[in-house]
Amino acid sequence: MDQPTSAATLEALDTQRRLEAEREFHNRKFGEAQEHRGSSSIYELPRAAYRAFERDLEPLAKGADILEYGCGDCSYVARLAKQGGRVTAIDISDEAVETARKIAAQEGIDAHFAVMNAEELTFPDESFDLVIGRAILHHLDLEKAYASIARVLRPGGTAIFLEPMAHNPLIELYRRFTPHLRTEDEHPLLVKDFDMARRHFGTLELEYFTLLSMGALVFSKAPKLFKPALKALDAADAGLFKLMPVLGRFAWTAKMVMRKPAKG
């Protein structure tokens, strides 16, 4: 008589299926010629978030051991190395790693690259001063990911991530109509996912982006109007989130700055 499959075995099989699906999706993404996403105005909407993310990285990069947690054609390896960081980049997709490696080589950058499961980092404890990632956590088992990041961070180290959120119904409607742009298992973050992060790190600072600024899409066919409108609405968003932080749950993007407590 066949023995029933244990819960642990089922969980392991589901994890394997999920990771293989992620690897295959991103190998296709980086291995095939892709339409330039910048040609679509919707992908210009979070530009204020990108600028804020990059501003946070610069003062922390010099002399730091840095892990880029997920890489590819938007890799920050070259930028961080030029700012004085010693950079290692990983991704579950070998195509993504090769893409980032080629970009670094073209820039004359010396960095380390590895194909690796982000949920089970193989680096020794306390290997990095800074861990960064953009739009990767929402592809992962967050409990495992947070634990792995916290383990490899040195005391006093910082992790900075830019991630999409799941509470805005208009954005969720867009996602529903564009399933080919994402994987089956990805899960934009919920407020409760920030509470989980706080359990793994000493502090979590949040900054929200892209709510009112989605209105700039009205001018998507008029480039001369789109950029000024987006700039004005980005400023309005900044004021709104400062005045009413609770509305941050409806933003498209959140910047997460997590710090590991220093020893002593």
Major beta sheet summary: 7 strands, mixed
Going by CATH, the architecture would be 3-Layer(aba) Sandwich
Poorly predicted spans: 33-39
Largest beta sheet: strand ordering: 3-2-1-4-5-7-6
* CATH topology (fold) name: Rossmann fold
Report the span from N to C terminus: 57 Å
Outline: globular
Based on secondary structure, the structural category is: alpha/beta
Describe this structure in words.
Strand 1, helix 3 (77-82) and strand 2 form a beta-alpha-beta unit. Helix 1 packs across helix 4 (94-106) and helix 5 packs parallel to helix 7. The protein has 264 residues and is of the alpha/beta class. It has one domain (8-32, 40-259): Vaccinia Virus protein VP39 (Rossmann fold), CATH 3.40.50.150. The relative contact order is 0.14. The radius of gyration is 19 Å and the shape is globular. The chain is built from 8 helices and 7 strands; from the N terminus they run ααβαβαββαβααβαβ. Strands 3-2-1-4-5-7-6 form a 7-stranded mixed sheet, sandwiched between helices. Helices cover 42% and strands 18% of the residues.
